[in-house]
UniProtKB/TrEMBL annotation:
Organism: Sphingomonas lycopersici
Domain Exonuclease: 8-181
Name by which UniProt lists this protein: 3'-5' exonuclease
GO cellular component: cytosol
Record carries keyword Nuclease: yes
Listed InterPro entries: Ribonucl_H, RNaseH-like_sf, RNaseH_sf
GO MF entry, a single one: nucleic acid binding
Amino acid sequence: MMRPTPSIIRVIDLETTGPTPPQHGVCEIGWQDVTLGADGRWEVAGDSGARFVNPGRLMPPITQAIHHIRDEDVADAPYWHDVARPVLDPWPRRVALAAHRADFEQVFCTSALTHGAEWICTWKCALRLWQDSPSFSNQVLRYWRKPEGLVHETGLPAHRAFPDAYVTAFHLRDMLNEVGVQQLLEWSRLPGLLPRVRYGPDRGKDWREIEEESLIGFLTDRDPDVRFTAETEMARRRGGGHVGRPDRQELLL
């Protein structure tokens, strides 16, 4: 009897020379699979690794100071178009790709390279599921949540492609086991729903607690996440929603 093809979501992390191609390029890609087990639970298991990539340009000192990858480290590495497809579109076929703040990875991991894969953004999903976190960066979530099974040393050094993908995979595993694939995909297609006001006189407050005059000011904010959150809160108020923290059922809607 043939074994069923495993269900895999591949977590991706990139280190780059900067944020915007074609001015900037990828200098390292890391990945860690999260696999659906026979018991119906997702687990951090399967293929993982990292590869240097020649970005085709010199490494700016400001980005070297973050990931500590030097020009000589990537001088003999293959170029992005030779590395990307085997990592992003593996066999057996993955259900989706995932990344923390996946909008960044998607700028470099184009649909042509991913074979049209859908993406889960663990940052956007963390905003929905773990509202009490003091911050929503990959590393803050790591130390605030302390995911079961995460090997501390394997997740270091931070700001390198494989360790960061490894840490993200544990966040993704727990999200999948809490609400499932489709809910995470749905949240990831939308802008981020921020649990607290980021700046201004109401900084740090729950959005439901601020005055409507302040809320109206955020409706035209340049940040799409702030704008989306303000629009969502305004729609909730117009619909007669209560002021205060959303309950668990509301978060899942």
